[in-house]
Amino acid sequence: MNIIEVKNLTKKYKKLKAVDDLSFEVRKGEILGLLGPNGSGKSTTINCLLSLLNFSSGSIKIFGEEMKPDSYDIKSKIGVVFQEVSVFEELTVYENIDYFCGLYITDNKTRKKYIEDAIKLVGLEDFKKFYPKKLSGGLLRRLNIACGIAHKPKLIFLDEPTVAVDPQSRNNILDGIKKLRNDGATIVYTTHYMEEVEILCDRVIILDKGKILATGTTDELKELAKIEEKIKVEVNDLDCKYIGEIKDFKNVDEVEYNWNMLLITYKKGKNNLFDIMEYLKKENIKYSKIFSERPTLNDVFLELTGKELRD
Ligand SMILES: Nc1ncnc2c1ncn2[C@@H]1O[C@H](COP(=O)(O)OP(=O)(O)OP(=O)(O)O)[C@@H](O)[C@H]1O
Ligand SMILES: [Mg+2]
User: Fold this and answer.
1) Which ligand ends up closest to the CA of 37?
2) Ion ligand 2: residue ranges with CB closer than 5 A
3) DSSP state of 90
4) Tens of pLDDT along 254-285?
5) How many angstroms separate the CA atoms of 264 and 292, rounded?
6) Ligand 2 centroid vs 71 CA: distance in angstroms?
7) Which among 74, 86, 72 has a CA at the least distance from the CA of 145?
8) CA-CA to 292 of 20 to 30 Å: which in 51, 135, 197, 268?
């Protein structure tokens, strides 16, 4: 069953198509990753889905019904964690969560339990009486999440919830999000961190310039890579004549040498590692490390979206 169905969604800002003819679905119980560079249209897509933005054309169905600005019944089953932290400075951690949860859950006993569940989920037990100003960046992000999900929504949108948090907080947040999914929520998660997508998402949409470039599981997306193997060699002061020779090896796609690391990418081939080790030995080139890798999601992402810098 599909929780969200988007057909031919387009959102224009004057001439710019921030979202350009998007069609996709979100299936019940999955974590769908929206992965894209800065300005690719992730937040605009979410804001259209939430009916916070008018869109230029297309249709959006959520829980099988058309989503409109006054679809309050649908909205009451949705939780949103916005890209910008949005909590009240005047309220403590507990009071903030109580406020947001209270918009949906009016029964006091149920709300108290839900607030405690949310606090536990994001690990804020020791900070209930803290004001937001006293929280570190990671704790503030965790509060932002708790406020968005405390009412136990069936559908949750998280827009880059782990920006600027340290790895410890990030792991804690990702574990929490998995728990929400395991408890039955359907989740749409935007990010530009590949490792988060690998850990978290059941399916991924790669977005750029408002268009879908690819959809699939992370394994399916890796199959799209044009390269088949990467070999890295840690070697000091390599003469460029060797780099030229390696470029002419069979199967080699590209050779780069930066910061004493030689990176060779191969389109295909079976004995690439053996061949390069033989060559280094023959030329008496000493290296401290050598290893072979399969293409990563990052490689596929850069192949699809290009390497130029974004805004
Ligand atoms: N209110 C607006 N007016 C004009 N252009 C806008 C507006 N909001 C967004 N845009 C443009 O729409 C495009 C998509 O922006 P959006 O914020 O959806 O990207 P994003 O993928 O969420 O990026 P990021 O990773 O930086 O959050 C960008 O080119 C952006 O400059
Ligand atoms: Mg955004």
Assistant:
1) 1
2) 42-43, 83
3) T
4) 999 999 999 999 998 889 999 999 999 999 99
5) 9
6) 24
7) 86
8) 197
- Chain segment 44-73, per-residue pLDDT in tens: 999 999 999 999 999 999 999 999 999 999
Query: Residue 158 C-alpha to ligand 1 middle, in angstroms?
Result: 16
Same domain, 148 and 279: no
Ligand nearest to the CA of 11: 1
Q: What CATH number is given to the structural domain containing 93?
A: 3.40.50.300
User: Which pLDDT belongs to residue 311?
Assistant: 64
Domain finish residue from 159, 188, 222: 222
36 touches ligand 1 (CB under 6 Å): yes
Tell me if 291 CB under 6 Å of ligand 1. Answer: no
Higher pLDDT, 25 or 268: 25
Tokens of 29: 């119980």
Cβ density class 124-163: b for 16+ within 10 Å, e for less: beebeebbbeebeebbbbbbbbbbbbbbbbbbbbbbbbbe
300 assigned to some structural domain:
no
* Cα-to-centroid distance, 289 and ligand 2 (Å): 39
Residue 165: per-residue pLDDT: 83
Is the distance from the beta carbon of residue 11 to the nearest atom of ligand 1 less than 6 Å? no
pLDDT tens per residue across span 168-226: 888 888 999 999 999 999 999 999 888 899 999 999 999 999 999 999 999 999 989 88
Ligand 1 atom 5: the closest Cα is on which residue? Answer: 13
Do 234 and 218 belong together in one domain? no
CATH, residue 236: 3.30.70.100
Count structural domains, the chain.
Answer: 2
Looking at the structure, tell me whether residues 206 and 269 fall in a common domain. Answer: no
272: containing domain = 229-294
CA of 119 to the centre of ligand 1 (A): 32
Average pLDDT, stretch 296-308?
87
Under DSSP, the state recorded for 132 is G
**Atom 28 in ligand 1: residue holding the nearest Cα:** 39
